[in-house]
Amino acid sequence: MGANSFIFFGLLLIPLIVFLVWMIKQDKKRNYLGLVLLVVGIIIATYTIITLDKKFMQKSNDSHAAPKSSSFK
Questions:
Q1: Where are the domains of the chain?
Q2: Record's superkingdom (predicted)?
Q3: What pLDDT, in 10s, does the model give residues 14-71?
């Protein structure tokens, strides 16, 4: 992943973690099944984002050829 991807991912991940911690503290029943499903969903989403970004970066790096400039005379 490129540096911009890490920055963007971090900017989205940090508020999500803070929000989740706040939500867990609000839960009076302490239902851990929902927490487990939430963590599994976050892991799947993280894996998907990293995999798709890696494929996109490989495609971008494979095509180094610059387009031909047109000649306007």
A1: 3-64
A2: Bacteria
A3: 888 788 778 777 877 777 777 788 888 888 988 888 888 787 777 766 555 566 666 6
Token pair for residue 10?
Answer: 């971090």
Tell me if residue 56 falls in helix, strand or coil: helix
Q: Which long-range contacts (CB under 8 A, 24 or more apart) does 4-10 make?
A: 5/53, 9/49
Amino acid in position 44:
I
Long-range Cβ pairs for the range 11-20 (8 Å, 24+): 16/42
Is the overall model pTM greater than 0.85, yes or no? Answer: no
Each residue of 11-43: b (16+ CB within 10 Å) or e? eeeeeeeeeeeeeeeeeeeeeeeeeeeeeeeee
| Amino acid type, 39 | V
